[in-house]
User: What shape does this take?
Amino acid sequence: MEAKQSLRIAMVGRPNTGKSTLFNQLTGMNQKVSNYPGVTMERTSGLTKLAPGQLAEIIDLPGIYSLHPSSADEAVVMDSLLNVHEEGEVDVVIGVADGTNLKTCLFVFSQVLDLGIPAVLVITMADDMAHRGLVLDHAALGESLGCEVLIVNARTGEGMEAIQPAIIRAKASPHAPFFQPGGIHLQWLAALQEGDEYIYKTWLRSLSQPAHEAKIRESSRGPKRLRADEAIQRYRQVNRWLGSFLTSYPEQDRRFSTKVDRLLVHPLWGSVVLFGLLFVIFQALFYGSEGPMVAIDEMITSLSQSINAKLPGGFFTHMITHGLMPGITGVLMFVPQIAMLFGFIALLEESGYMSRVVFMMDRFMRPFGLSGKSVVPMISGTACAIPAIMSTRNMEDGRERWLAIAVTPFITCSARLPVYALIIGLVIPDMALMGINLRGLVLFGLYFLGFAAALAAAALLNRWKRSQVKVKVPDFLLEMPEYRWPQPRNVGMMIWRQTSSFVKEAGKIIVAISVILWFAASFGPDHAADFTQDRVSVPIEESYIGIAGQFIEPVMRPLGYDWKISVAILSSFVAREVFVGTMATLYSVGDEGIESIHATLASQINPETGEAFFSLPMGISLLLFYAFAMQCMSTLVVVARESRSWTLALTQFVLMSLFAYVVAWAAFVALS
Assistant: This one.
């Protein structure tokens, strides 16, 4: 290892072992998100300096329960360790183990050692081990494993300084393999062996290839039985290690999590706590973010007015003040709400409460043909439907995965949040009912409506599936992590990654479309724009965008929308949040002055009634349309890719759009 200047290091371990915390400590801010080679699943990697002149790329692999893949996550890990990808082999593995759950963690790590890859075992949760009265002779365990074993507290950084030197010294275990494949198929495996490859690596590779399954059945007892034999042998070895090197003093065990779970996972009180917590979160989203949002809006508006006053009138000045700046406002104005939303999600995950939510929801999801595993994509769908749909890969049951992919786009994602915030701020009074903010209550209702629509759709699709073939919801197994105080660094990293992703990925689309729309709204086929201080542009109704908008307006008019809103809805198919930037651009291009988005839209008058154009009926219609419509091209593509069916994706898009149209029309008619 010492002779190589750049190392590829893979972090391998079970879920909820503190792997992400350890990864953040090792890499700091030197992280990037990309896809695994040949796979659309996201991975996080980062750079760290091991020694002067020696860098390492650390790859945070998905949490696994075994190297025998039963899900796409585990298949990615196995492919990475078996060097299936062409990007290069893994030089070192950092095995991550929860000190309070060593038995199952050592099972996975012993599989890694048997591949012949240099490895270091890092045992986390040192503080929880002390609370439970667990004492581990890690030096003696390391001797038996044939690798260095370190005990750290990644949350506080205790013991972290020993990891990097251990990586440099890492070598393949001289004691491996800890499991030796047996049976009459050994001769056949020897023929498949490549050079001095470890026999376990050959065996693992052969079990994962369907072409070899028939030959395995001929020469042995079948893949399932072989895996069962391996599990029995490995756990016997793990029990010997723990019996020799782990001492327990149960009188020191506080069992804090068990006591708290009596309330938080109770069938009744646990549901009350969960509902109340979600209610508080959405109240906080409006109370806490309203001030920063207004400040950002006013700051950019003031900057636009200053630019307009100081620069000479002309094409570029008008483009900056009426095209570029409204687009920037449509991005930055909603950063506070998005940051707060991801902050709350990170707190729930870091504390260990998110797993309890999944557990409690399992019994609730069963009547809809889903299990607790479906809650994970639904909850992550509040951030973005794309990774949420991709997260269904850890579902072993194909029917349930299909259902989850079909209904997850109903969940209110963060891209809808700017649309909701804008419309709610326009049409819902800023008042409190018994101390409860009305706008926050409406936002909570929209999120609840998304979950309700997803469950209703799942029930209908599940009934349709059952009419074709009898299906059974699989049993649900979940490992509960201990409750822990959220690590501020991890919470901050998640907020930073997700918020910066919104600004960079969605922001560049919003700003680009805002400039394009400005151009289309400032020029027309029969007019040449004259950008002077006296005349800024052609009449917007006679511009290119005005002509296109008036062409499609009759279709959207029954919902109460004019041509400008119709254009904004069509443009938001690129990304839902584009709606805000489009509205800001279209309603500012034709105005002489420069005002904030809220002020501009609030001042619009309905020419037919003489009242405010953004009325309650029209606002509710818009909110419901975006609650149900699949207004996202990226989601459409991901559904087609993950389901391997463009028929499903297009059918889903058409049905959701029609349903959104009908509901929005019914709401507008009923409230008018």
In short: The CA atoms of residues 529 and 537 lie 5 Å apart. The longest helix spans residues 269-310. The first strand starts at residue 6 and ends at 13. Residues 34-40 have pLDDT under 50 and may be disordered.
